[in-house]
Fold this protein.
Amino acid sequence: MVRAGYRVESQVANQAVLVKGRRPNHLLHLILGVVTISLWWLFVWLPLVLFGGEKRRVVTVDTFGNVAVTKGRG
């Protein structure tokens, strides 16, 4: 999964949280929205918040070596 662009956010003995993407810079989007009379918020920032941002996956390995990947929060 690291080859696919994920980075390790946290790790314990049998579980790791992987993250892909970046958080949007909300201050920058606020300023651009004010300058463009809210058009930036409607056409750029809102889709970015809904569909972009960070994607998290929780990878767990049980005692038999089976790997399970689930969606994380955020």
In short: The first helix runs from residue 26 to 35.
